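Colleagues,

Please find the record for the two-part complex below.
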Amino acid sequence: MNRFEPAQTSVQMALTGFRSLAKIGAGSQKIVFRAERNDGNVCAVKLYPVDTVQRGSRAEREIQAITAVTGPQFATFHGMRRLPIEGVEFVVIEEEFIDGDTLKSRMSGTPLPISFVRHLGGQLLEALRVIEACRLVHRDIKPDNVMISSADRVVVIDFGIVRHLDESSLTATWAPRGPMTLAYAAPEQVSNDKAAIAIRTDLYAMGLVLYEAATGFNPITTGVSRDTIPGRILTHSPEELARVRPDVPAEFSRFVHRLVEKQAHRRPQTVQAARQLFDRIQWSSL
Amino acid sequence: MRFFLQMGYGMLSMNRDLLTRYAAGADAGVIVWPRTTDPQQALSHAQDVHRLRGSVLFDSCFYAPRSEHARITSFPYWPSADAYDTTEFTAEAGRQFAEEAIRYQVETLRVTEILLPGSFVNTIDQQWLDTHRQFAEAGAKAERGGRRVFSTVAIGEDLIVHQQSFDRLINELTTFPVDGVYFLYRSPNGQYLTTNDVFLLNLLIGFLSLSLAGKEIIIGYANQQDLIFAAAGVGTIASGNFRNVRRFNPAIFEEQEAQDLSRKTWFYDGNSMSEFRTEQLDIAYHHLGMRGRFGPRSPEADVLLDAINPSQADWPERSSFMHFLQILREQWIGFAQVPRNRRAAAASAMVHLAAQQITGYRNSRFALGQRSAADALPIYADVLEQFQALETDRIAEL
C-alpha cells in the first residue's frame, strides 16, 4: 500500500510555527522537510502517516529509537506531536537539521582519503555503541544514511527499519526477508534469519561502508545484475581490501573483512569487541 | 580451567574421594544426574559435594523428552505427557518445564550453576531453536541468586558436519541470553576418539565463536579427545568412569538398561592419550624393555607401574577410573598455565608429543591395541594446524 502524501500547502497550514518548509526526502514511511522556524532556527521535520496498523507500528518503533539514541553521532531530538492533515493522522517529529552531505554524495564513486576512512570508522563504531546499548539494531547502515557535516561530524540517520531486540518482530516469520537495503544487507537479513540479527548485523553493513569508502565501490553490488545480489550476499567474499587499496594498513583490511564475514558468529559479537580490533590498527603510515 | 566429574554407576564414593584429593574449589565439582540416582540420592550427594567445597551442577537428562527411563522420569521437574503438542512443547508448557527444572536445581539441590534442560537433535529446525531459546529466556528471568545459567546443547554428528546447519546453530547460540553452553556431542559412527576432521574442525570453530561471544563452554561426557578444545577457549570439561559417560550417547537416556557396564580394566597412558590393558603392559615390560615409559603417574598408578607383572597388580576397576580422572584433570588444568590465546599452540604441542610417544611404542614393537589414539592423533594434529591457520586473528582475540 502506497504511503499517503499530503499536499505541501496542507502541511504548511497544519504545521504552525514555521515560516518555510522544503521537502528534502521521502521514503515508504515518512516525508522529511527542512523547516525554518519563525525565530529563524532551522530544524528537520519528519511526517509519519499512521494510516495503517503496520505503518503506525513502524513509526512508533522509529520514534522510540530516535528518542533513545543520543550523542554527537545522532541528530538531536526536539519534540513530537500528532496532527491530522487532509483527514489522515500524522506523527510529526522535529529534530536537529544536519547541514551537510550524505556519505554517498561525499564518496561519489571515488576512494576517500585514509585519514577520513579512519575517522569514519571510529565515529560509526561510536554510533553503533550507542545503538547497541539501547538494545537496537539499525538494520539500514549505508552511505545514504550517514550524514557528514561541513566539520566532518558523522551522523547516523533514518531509523525507519530499526529492530528492537526486546520487542517482537514486525516482519512475518514466513516472509522471505525483512526490510533492508539489499546492497548493504547482511546474510542473515537476506535469509530472514531473525534470531541471528543483532548488532553484528550493523557491523556487517559498517564493514561494507568502510570498504566502499576506502575503494570507491561496493564489493557486493558493483558490476553485477541486481537479481544476482542476494546470492552474492550469501556466498561472495569481497576481494581483499589491502589488494584493492594497497595503502590501507593491513590490520584495517583484516578488520573490515572480519566485519563482513558471511557467518554472523564469525564477526565481532559486540561493538566493544570490534572497537578493540579497530584500536589495534597501526595507522602510523598516515 | 575447570574439571567436573560426570556421574555414572559407582561414582558417588569416587566423587567424594577425588574431590577430597583435589582439595576442591571453584575449579572442581560434580555434575549430578538422575540416570543412576533417585531424587533422595541426588540430594544427599549434592550435599556431600557442597560439604567438600566442590561445585554442584545438575544434568536433567532431558535428551529424550519421551524417555521411558524410570529413574530419569521420576524426578519432580519431569514434564507430564500433556505438556506436549504432538512432539514439541506447547509454548506455556515449555516455559513451565524450564522454570520447574530451574527451581529444582536452585531450591532443592542448591546448585552452583544452572544447566537448563536440552533435548538431543541431529538436524536443526526452528522449533528446536525456539524451544531452547525459550528455556534460555526462562533461565534469564528466573530467581537464581546470581547463579550463572548454561543452555544445554546436545547434538549429533550430522548437524555438526553440515556446515550451514551448524553455522545456523552457532549464530543463534551466540545470541541466547545465557552465560554459557553445556555442550554434548555424539561422535560420528559412535567412535570414542573421532577421526572425522571436518567434525572436529567445525567444533573448534564453533567453540571459538561461542568463546569470543563471551559464552563459557562446558563439554560434558568428555574424554581425552576433548583436551584439544582448550585451543578454542573451552574452559570446562566433565568426565566420568565408564565409557558411556566419557562419550555422549543419547540412547542411554531413553530406556533403563539391564547392564551397561564394561568390566575390563584399563590403564590411561596420558603420555600417548591412549588406554592399554594390563596384559599389554606385561608384554611391554617383559619382552620390549618399556618399563618407565608409561605415565604420568597418579596415586593409584604406582602399584601398577611398579609391579613386576602389571596384570597381577592390585588394579581394580576403581583404580583404573580414579587414575583416568586424575590424569585427565591434570592434563586439562595444565592449560590454565597457558594464556587463552596460546592454548591452540599448547594443544597442538600436546598432540604432537602424544603422537611421538605412539611412534616410540611402535618402534619398540609394542602392540597398541584397540584403545590407542594412534589413528586419531594425526587427525587432531592436522585439524589443530588448520584451525590455527584459518583462525589466527580470532584465536589472538581469546
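The longest strand of chain B covers residues 149-155.

Comments are welcome before we finalize the supplementary table.
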